[in-house]
């Protein structure tokens, strides 16, 4: 399952825990430094975290470096 999808060369969307995609943002965003932050779901209209598999992958990358 895809957890991050490219919108264009510099923009991505991330899968949220509700199963919807986040709003788009830069692929170099500081969002990736704080993977457990809540994001507004454009479909549900409430705050959701990224899918836990994506959070785990981000933390693995953060602690690897």
Q: Please give the count of helices.
A: 1
Radius of gyration: 11 Å
Tally of strands: 5
Please give the order of strands in the largest beta sheet. 1-2-3
Intertermini distance: 25 Å
Q: In terms of per-residue confidence, which ranges show pLDDT below 50 for 5 or more consecutive residues?
A: none
Biggest sheet overview: 3 strands, antiparallel
Query: How many structural units, i.e. domains?
Result: 1
Helix share of residues?
Answer: 10-25%
Q: Kindly estimate the percentage of residues that lie in beta strands according to DSSP.
A: 15-25%
Structural class: alpha+beta
Describe this structure in words.
The protein has one domain (4-64). It is 20% helix and 23% strand. The N and C termini lie far apart (25 Å). The longest helix is centred in the last third of the chain and has 13 residues, at 52-64. A hairpin with a 2-residue loop joins strand 1 (4-8) and strand 2. It is α+β, with helices and mostly antiparallel strands. The protein is globular. It has one helix at residues 52-64; strands at residues 4-8, 11-14, 25-26, 39-40, 47-48. The mean pLDDT is 94. The strands form two sheets. A three-stranded antiparallel beta sheet has the order 1-2-3, with no helix packed on it. Strands 4-5 form a two-stranded antiparallel sheet.
């Amino acid at each position: 399952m895809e957890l991050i999808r490219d919108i264009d060369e510099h923009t991505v969307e991330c899968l949220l825990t509700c199963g919807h995609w986040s709003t788009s943002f830069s692929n170099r965003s500081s969002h990736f430094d704080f993977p457990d932050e809540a994001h507004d779901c454009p479909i549900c209209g409430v705050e959701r975290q990224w899918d836990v598999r994506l959070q785990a992958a981000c933390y693995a990358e953060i602690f690897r470096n």
